[in-house]
Write a structure and sequence with these properties.
The structure is a single chain. This protein is an all-alpha fold and about 210 residues long. The protein contains eleven helices and no strands.
């Protein structure tokens, strides 16, 4: 349990982005922030409890209190969804992903994750719509960049993976091959290797394994 529990989603791994609001002032219910901060401290100090189901249930209870106290407190949903995916509570994770997409509706990462969870819950229609929306947002992001740095490369990776999830596996893998061949940074190339021959099911499986 608790594998990379803080911002551990596949999206964070590739985009180097935390979905938290660190550094921003919080104006909601202070109880929600207090509960979520308490969870973070507990997890950082009690790694030996990582497979203690009672401890995990207590952590989840604290997080549910946080989201009930303030339904707009985004960091609490980040923690909740990691637990839900770890325990294969995919219906619950879908509900959490919807809340995260509501709070950050312009996030391509949130839409891609929501699509994945629709997929896991056998709703291919809504999954497809989410993937399409994510690709459109990625395209807008890529059209506005002036300097192609690592962050842009990471966006291109996720655009390619979402294309695979959409069923455009040939186009997505071609884009990944191009990025891999052009990459000069060893760690970046290594992170791409497991996706070079991946299909839709492979991408979904890797997401569920690494979350």
């Amino acid at each position: 349990m608790m594998k990379k529990i803080i911002s551990s989603c596949l999206f964070a791994i590739f985009l180097g982005a935390s979905f938290s609001v660190a550094g921003q002032s919080y104006h909601g219910d202070p109880k929600a922030k207090l509960l979520c901060d308490s969870v973070t401290k507990l997890l950082s100090k009690t790694r030996e409890r990582a497979h203690d189901s009672l401890f995990d249930a207590s952590i989840m209870n604290l997080l549910e209190q946080a989201t009930a106290s303030d339904t707009d407190y985004y960091p609490a949903y980040e923690e909740v969804i990691n637990y839900q995916i770890e325990y294969r509570q995919y219906q619950g994770a879908l509900s959490t992903a919807k809340e995260m997409a509501r709070l950050k509706s312009g996030s391509a990462e949130n839409l891609a994750r929501l699509g994945l969870l629709y997929d896991v819950n056998n709703d291919s229609v809504h999954a497809h719509l989410c993937y399409q929306s994510a690709v459109r947002i990625y395209d807008v992001m890529l059209d506005t960049v002036k300097v192609k740095d690592r962050s842009v490369l990471q966006i291109e990776v996720w655009r390619a993976l979402v294309l695979i999830l959409l069923g455009n596996e040939s186009e997505g893998r071609n884009d990944l091959d191009h990025l891999y061949n052009e990459a000069s940074e060893g760690s970046f190339k290594q992170s791409l290797e497991k996706y070079l021959h991946a299909g839709r099911k492979d991408v979904i499986a890797i997401f569920l394994k690494t979350s």
